[in-house]
Amino acid sequence: MDNAKMKKYAELLVRSGGNVQPGQIVVIGCGVDDAWFARMVQECAYDAGAREVIMDWSDDISTRNKFLRADGQVFDEFPQWKIDWYKHYDDRGAVYLRISGSDPDYLAGVDPDRLRRFSKVSGIATKAHSALAMSNAVRWSVIAIPTPKWAMKVFPGLPEAQAMEKLWAAILKGARADGTDPQADWEAHKNNFTQRVDYLNGQNFDALRITTGLGTDITIGLAKNHVWVGGGDLGKDGVPFFPNLPTEEIFTMPDRMRAEGRVVASMPLSRQGNLIEGFEMTFKDGLVESFKAEKNEQTLADIFVMDEGAKRLGEVALVANSSPIGQMGTLFYNTLFDENAAAHLALGKAYPNNMQGGDEMTTEERVAAGGNDSLVHVDFMFGTADMKVVGIAADGSETVFFDNGEFI
Ligand code: ZN
Ligand code: ZN
Description:
Elements: H1 3-17, E1 25-31, H2 35-47, E2 52-58, H3 60-69, H4 80-91, E3 95-100, H5 112-125, H6 127-134, E4 140-144, H7 148-154, H8 160-174, H9 182-203, E5 207-211, E6 217-222, E7 229-230, E8 233-234, E9 240-241, E10 250-252, E11 254-264, E12 269-271, E13 274-284, E14 287-295, H10 297-304, E15 313-318, H11 324-328, H12 335-338, E16 344-348, H13 363-368, E17 377-381, E18 388-392, E19 398-403, E20 406-407
Parallel strand pairs: 1-2, 1-3, 3-4
Antiparallel strand pairs: 5-6, 5-18, 6-11, 7-10, 8-9, 10-15, 11-13, 12-13, 13-14, 15-16, 16-17, 18-19, 19-20
Residues 315, 346, 377, 379 line the site of one zinc ion (ZN).
């Protein structure tokens, strides 16, 4: 991949993604193997007027070593200094940029109990920071870049260099970053969302009935004052940003107490280094009543034991089958891309801005109004090329607004 394209991709993250403003602190989260790209992003952030750019390095191999070899008790601990670290930058209005690029299997074979415990303790410790991010009080943005192991997993059988080149091309295409002016392409992309979002918010459906040829037949109640969102977000300071590059979804808040029926996943779910395959779940009164998976059922079960909210829905998202990622038909083993390939649901925490006035409400108020809360937010794909969605109004009347995998 040529340097000019990568530079444009780095600029896209800084300018369209996080929309870094002059004088702002920028925190870049990145793996050590991708340091060269993180430094490129750092330069772009300084060019955009950043006051200071903080590098927050991680290392998959060290993390794996820790999970395999550290004392068992450390997985129930989270250092206070890291909590203070987040607070320090949150208080100063930092924007968080993350460059994700992992071997999808780096945690394979690690004790799932250690993963579950650490995921819980870090979820509790970083709750204040997550709440700020999920309510757009701090701006954040995530992009992905390929790593050799990731590329070989997505394109098995190819030599490493070729697989890397192919994954770069797929990522830039999927993220609409392969044109001559990606920032302008993203502005146009954003405008395309507006019409659909306005239509759905105008309809104010009470519930959605979603069916697919794979056997999904589920009726999902929508939270009373739900808001459909898509095509970027608005920070609390009024600055627009894109939390995810790519984004192809239009999503809203389900009523945590109302989901009835069966949902069959259309793509595997990569979670903590394990691939959950061939899975489905059945909901009753909004709660997962039963579930099964052909592969890694335990990893799926580990999600549900986090807390009660992990067994309820926090997001329903529609994605047109014709999205660039859907069209590629590639399984990326990476949620950022796979969730934009197909319609999905999320188990766990709902986004406050998917409810009118949700950002100003306390968690308790949102839960009382039907919005789910949990330490987790796990997206899984169920959309297919034959998916149909019927909007059900409060008076029971029905409107088909999505059929054969596309918005009508
Ligand atoms: Zn989503
Ligand atoms: Zn989600």
